[in-house]
Each structure stands twice: as structure tokens, then as C-alpha cells.
Design brief:
The structure holds two protein chains of two kinds. By secondary structure, chain A is of the alpha/beta class. Chain A has helices at about 20, 40-55, 70-80, 100-115, 125-140, 255-260, 270-275, 305-310, 340-360; strands at about 25-30, 35, 35-40, 60-65, 85-90, 120, 140-145, 150, 155-165, 170-175, 180-185, 200-205, 220-225, 240, 265-270, 295-300, 315-320, 335. Chain B is an alpha/beta fold. The chains are: A alpha/beta, B alpha/beta.
Chain lengths: ~350, ~280
């Protein structure tokens, strides 16, 4: 992505690709996994990659890198269920834990050997570390945190759209004279594709070709997060969020009360997190998390673009705000114009009653 | 210990507005600040200097105005500041930016060898998180991103042990210097500028490097020419055409509003009841 997007000239329309680069074919998705779990963003990208590959008339491949074992094959098969035609598999003990050096070398080697035209990676801590390193090693373009991927058929190029200036504007970025075209996408930005468990495909193995002695960085230990009590916003079904309109930290308890009745996670806008009312893990928006729950309740949130980009794909949005002109009402599903401090308790009570009635009814 | 900290001056994105008619960024009156993520890196570098001794050099690439950001860093306690500025850098994407900053760091190394480079986790304007890894690859330095704690620096064996935020946990990594570190937000809190450092910042003779002084060997690798990514279109997000259905009742009492809303909600999304029941206590 450009560091100075607005100063740059628009792209030329038609570009003749160097024949060496034109030989790059196919769409790849890096299948991220840690501790036996594939990160859902990889499957979200597989769904998106399928569309791009179909548009280009090429194959979609998953890239699985990890320690030898049955697990890797399971991940390859899962990749096919989610839309891949084939998988590149690199197994080596050195790939047991993520480290920049062996993963960068492995993925770079795979790209140089099999030459994909597009490489997609999840914008996670692992993915961003890896993508930046691989792109620099390959001297190619990388567009970070895309929200939309399309193919510009004229140049057969990837048109990657991403928010810029804190989400106030969107820009579409192309990589014309370099291959592969790389992009990262945040979790929950793309929809999870349907799985088809009858699908299968071929698995191509490729060695890493490294020895431990040549790797300088060592993993001393891994301390797993204690998930107990840790917010899990990205994959929550229901989120109740509060913004500056909650006025006082004490009032934020009303958000927690409603969340408790709904079994929901609590979210917040940037000012709330900066004021220290809730922990940083709960921030939704451009500089926080992207979420797409089934129900998002926004209380005292004006709906500024920085917050909107993180939650506008929620299935249903209920907005409570005292200002009838608040931008949140332009994109919410339902709105209540009123004082959140009064509406929230009423809503909590109504949900409580509704749920107990529903339970009695069985 | 010689630590180079890369910082960037950015517009405060929280205050950026888009002109409703022309769809262009209204920069007027938007204050320029030091990228907030860079401050965690700067503070961490200053703490290492406090504990192990040495020097901290801050480096920035940008327009001449970015001088302000560098002086700010001096006021917090950095020893030296270098601004890499040249029109030839305009339009650089992350690949070209990492090339330019890596060249400048090689020039810095000619005076004093560099043991560690710190960079922000990401910027608030570009948000790419790519320049740090890019610099590390170009300088063939070990890369430690999303560091939440520097546990130990062993000057004798030249090793660095850190805690790194990974998906689902924290990795404890040990590597050798030279290495490049990006720091996770919330790791520390920036110190206050002391009066004497503020005076020093005001008087500090800032070094300004053009592309030659920054050691750029290949001008085809900087600016627009050196940038593989091209911005083909900039546009404002399309507003959703459907506005919220405002819940209205005769009484407009909170209770009635809530009950009416729920009735509509569960009629439209009957499955939500099941989803809530699944999670609810």
C-alpha cells in the first residue's frame, strides 16, 4: 500500500506483462494454523480465492506448512472442502512453531518454484509478519488489510480495495508489473464459504531444505492465552457496544447488563478504550477488531467511519442514540432515538422477559 | 548499544474528515502527530538505553515538516535525529520505503554500528505493518514483530530475549543482534519530556539527508518508480441506501419501544432466538 496514496498518479490502463511474469498462474491461499487449529481467516480467504480463480480460469491452491504428521494432510483435505483444487504441502520439524525465517524461506521457495499470480494471506499477527517478509524478499507488491478483492480483466490483475485514512476513504490498488500479487485480509471481513466434503484434490509436497543450525531465532516457550474471561469479539454471535454517548464509566455497566442477559460480548469505540473504561481487546473499528456478529447493539455510538468499518457487516444492527441525525442511523437496521441510559435497561428487561417466555414455551 | 528507531509523522486520523461534495480529504486543520504506535517502540528503546547504556538515533522519512516529529523524539530523550527527505521519495509504497530506510540505516552504521532497530507495529494512516519486516529483510536482520516485552538483553553473547504476541498465546523468542523489533501497543507508557530535553530538542541541529546522503544507490527503487503497487482509484465509501427503521410507539416509553423492537427483530430474524439461547446463561 502506498504511504502517500493521494499524491500518486492513477494507473495506466493497459499493461503488457513481461512474458516471464505472464507465466505466473493460479491463486494461492496460505493456510494458517497454530496448535492444531486452522485460523478461520484462511477458509474465508479460500472462499474469496475461489471466486478470483474462477474469474481468471485458473486453479486455486492452499499452502500448508507445518511439522510432519497426519494433521497437515487433514488441513489439505479441509482446504479442498473449502474450495481448493490442490494443496502445496511443506512438512518439516523446523516448521512446528511459527518463526519468520523458515516460513519466509519456505513460502518464498514455493512461490519461486510454482509461480502463482496471486497470493492471499490472513492479516493476523502471523500473516502480517510473514507477508511483509515474503513480499520484500520477492520484491513484489503487497496490499494490506483489503476489504474487497476483484479481478481487473483487462490486465488480469488483482484489484485490491482497502480503507485508507482511518476508513474515511477507500482506495483500489493494483500490482501491474510484478508477480505474485500479494494481499492480506483481516479475519471476518470476508464471509465463510460453504463446505463441500465431497471435494478432493491433489497434494504436492515440497521440502523446506533448512537445518536448525542455520536458524538464528529460537523459540524458548509458548505461553497459551488463558481464554477464560478473555474477550472473543471476532467470533461472537452477539455484541453489545458502547460509545462516548454513555457519558460516564459507571453507565457502561448498563452495557454489561444487557450483554449478560444475551450471553453477548461487550465492545467499545476507540475513545472508550482510550479512556480506559474497557480493555483494548474490546475495541471495534479501524484500529481495533473487525466483527460480523448476527446481532450488534450500538449504544451511544455516533457511527463515525472509524467504528463503522469494523462492524457494518453485522447481520442486524440496533442503534440507540439521542441524536436523530447521528450517522449510525444511516446504516443500522433498527434505531431507537433516545437516551441510552434509559433505553438500555428497558431493552435488557424486554430481552429477559422474552427469553424466559420463549424458554417456558420450550 | 546503538538503537535506531524509525518513526513517521502522520495526520491524526481520528480528526480527518472527507468533504461531503468533492469526496476529498480535508487536511486543513488536521494536526500532524508522531504515529502513536512508534511511541511504544521509542519508549522501549529508551528503556533499553537506560538499563544497558548506549545511544538512540531516531530516523524518519517524509516531507520537511516531519522535523517536528523528530524534535518531539529528542524531547523524550533520543540522542540523535535524522530526517530523510527528498522529492524523489514521493509516492513510495512500502517496498520502496523499506529500501530507502534500509539504505539510511546502512549510512548510520558507517558512524556507529547498529545493534537493534525499532519500528512501529504499523502506522495509523497506512496501517500496513509491512515497513518493519521489509527493513529487516533488506538488512538481513532477525525480525521480532508484535513484541510485548523485552525480557533480557545479554550484551556479552549479543542475544535478545523477548515475548511476542502470537495467535492464541505468547511466544518467548531468543535471537541474536542485530535485530529489528516492532512493539505491541500498551507495552509501556511514553515518559514525559524533561525540561532539559525540551530545550535540547529546540536547539538540536537536525541532520537532513537527501537521497544521496541516505545512500540510495538505485533511484529506480524509490518513489513511484520503485513501487510495485499502484493506486488506481480513491473513492468515498458508498453510503448504504437503506436507513435504519426508527422504532416509534405512541407513548414512546422506553418499555414500549423495547418491546416493539423485539417483536420486529424476532419476526425478521426468528433464528436469533436460538442463537441467543445458545449463549445466554
Amino acid at each position: 500500500m502506498s504511504e502517500a496514496a493521494e499524491t500518486r498518479k492513477p494507473a495506466r490502463k493497459k499493461v503488457e506483462l513481461d512474458p516471464k511474469l505472464a507465466a505466473y498462474k493460479g491463486v494461492w491461499v496460505f493456510v494458517e494454523h497454530e496448535r492444531g487449529q486452522v485460523h478461520p481467516v484462511s477458509w474465508e480467504l479460500m472462499g474469496e480465492g475461489r471466486k478470483l480463480a474462477d474469474k481468471l480460469g485458473v486453479e486455486l491452491a492452499g499452502v500448508v506448512m507445518g511439522a510432519p504428521g497426519p494433521e497437515s494432510r487433514v488441513f489439505c483435505n479441509e482446504a479442498m472442502f473449502h474450495g481448493a483444487d490442490l494443496c502445496y504441502l511443506m512438512e518439516d520439524d523446523l516448521l512446528r512453531d511459527y518463526r519468520n525465517e523458515p516460513f519466509t524461506k519456505g513460502l518464498t521457495d514455493l512461490v519461486n518454484s510454482y509461480q502463482p499470480e496471486i497470493l492471499l494471506i490472513g492479516a493476523t499477527t502471523l500473516g502480517r509478519d510473514l507477508a511483509g517478509s515474503v513480499a520484500t524478499t520477492l520484491k513484489t507488491g503487497l496490499t494490506a488489510d483489503c476489504t474487497e478483492l476483484a479481478i481487473d480483466m483487462e490486465n488480469r490483475s488483482l484489484a485490491a480495495t482497502r480503507p485508507t485514512f482511518g476508513g474515511s476513504l477507500l482506495c483500489t490498488i493494483v500490482t501491474l508489473n510484478y508477480r505474485p500479487q500479494m494481499a492480506t485480509v483481516r479475519p471476518r471481513v470476508m464471509a465463510m464459504p460453504e463446505t463441500d466434503r465431497t471435494r478432493s484434490g491433489r497434494i504436492l509436497e515440497h521440502p523446506l531444505g533448512m537445518v536448525e543450525e542455520s536458524i538464528i531465532t529460537k523459540v524458548l516457550e509458548f505461553i497459551p492465552d488463558n481464554m477464560q474471561g478473555k474477550p472473543q469479539l471476532a467470533f461472537a454471535d452477539i455484541i453489545v457496544s458502547g460509545g462516548r454517548g454513555m457519558k460516564k464509566p459507571e453507565n457502561f455497566q448498563l452495557i454489561w447488563d444487557l450483554a449478560k442477559v444475551l450471553g453477548a460480548e461487550v465492545g467499545a469505540t476507540r475513545p472508550i478504550v482510550q479512556a480506559g473504561w474497557v480493555e483494548a481487546d474490546r475495541q471495534v473499528g479501524q484500529s481495533g477488531k473487525t466483527v460480523r456478529p448476527k446481532l450488534y447493539i450500538a449504544a451511544g455510538i455516533s457511527g463515525a467511519i472509524q467504528h463503522r468499518v469494523g462492524m457494518e457487516d453485522s447481520d442486524v444492527i440496533i442503534a440507540i442514540n439521542s441524536d436523530p441525525n447521528a450517522p449510525i442511523f444511516d446504516f443500522a437496521t433498527y434505531g431507537i432515538v433516545g437516551n441510552a441510559m434509559v433505553i438500555l435497561p428497558a431493552l435488557t428487561e424486554a430481552f429477559r422477559q422474552h427469553l424466559s417466555t420463549a424458554r417456558l414455551a420450550g | 548499544m546503538h538503537i535506531v528507531v524509525c518513526i513517521k509523522q502522520v495526520p491524526d486520523s481520528a480528526q480527518i474528515r472527507v468533504h461531503p461534495v468533492t469526496n476529498t480529504i480535508m487536511r486543513q486543520g488536521v494536526p500532524a502527530i508522531v504515529n502513536p504506535y512508534d511511541l511504544y517502540s521509542l519508549e522501549e528503546a529508551l528503556r533499553i538505553k537506560d538499563q544497558y547504556g548506549g545511544r538512540v538515533t531516531v530516523l524518519s522519512m517524509g516531507p520537511p515538516q516531519a522535523e517536528t516529529a523528530l524534535r518531539k523524539a529528542i524531547s523524550f530523550g533520543a540522542d540523535d535525529a535524522i530526517l530523510v527527505t527528498d522529492r524523489a521519495f514521493a509516492g513510495s509504497d512500502t517496498l520502496a520505503t523499506s529500501y530507502a530506510l534500509a539504505s539510511a540505516i546502512r549510512q548510520i552504521e558507517k558512524d556507529i554500528p547498529v545493534d537493534m532497530v525499532f519500528a512501529g507495529k504499523q502506522t495509523i494512516d497506512g496501517d500496513t505493518a509491512q515497513v518493519g519486516p521489509g527493513i529487516a529483510k533488506r538488512l538481513d536482520m532477525q525480525l521480532l514483530t508484535y513484541v510485548s516485552k523485552v525480557r533480557e538483553i545479554d550484551l556479552e553473547n549479543r542475544t535478545v530475549t523477548v515475548e511476542r504476541r502470537a495467535e492464541g498465546g505468547v511466544q518467548v523468542l531468543r535471537t541474536s543482534m542485530p535485530c529489528l523489533v516492532t512493539v505491541l501497543e500498551g507495552t509501556n507508557e511514553m515518559r514525559f519530556a524533561t525540561m532539559s530535553n525540551m530545550f535540547r530538542a529546540a536547539r538540536y541541529p537536525l541532520k537532513t539527508w537527501d537521497k544521496e546522503k541516505a545512500g540510495i544507490e538505485d533511484v529506480a527503487k524509490i518513489g513511484l518508480k520503485g513501487s510495485p503497487t499502484i493506486v488506481s482509484k480513491v473513492f468515498a465509501p458508498t453510503p448504504k441506501s437503506v436507513k435504519a427503521e426508527i422504532i416509534d410507539t405512541e407513548s414512546n416509553q422506553p418499555k414500549d419501544l423495547a418491546v416493539t423492537l423485539l417483536a420486529k427483530l424476532f419476526t425478521k430474524k426468528p433464528n436469533l432466538q436460538r442463537d441467543i439461547a445458545k449463549n445466554a446463561p
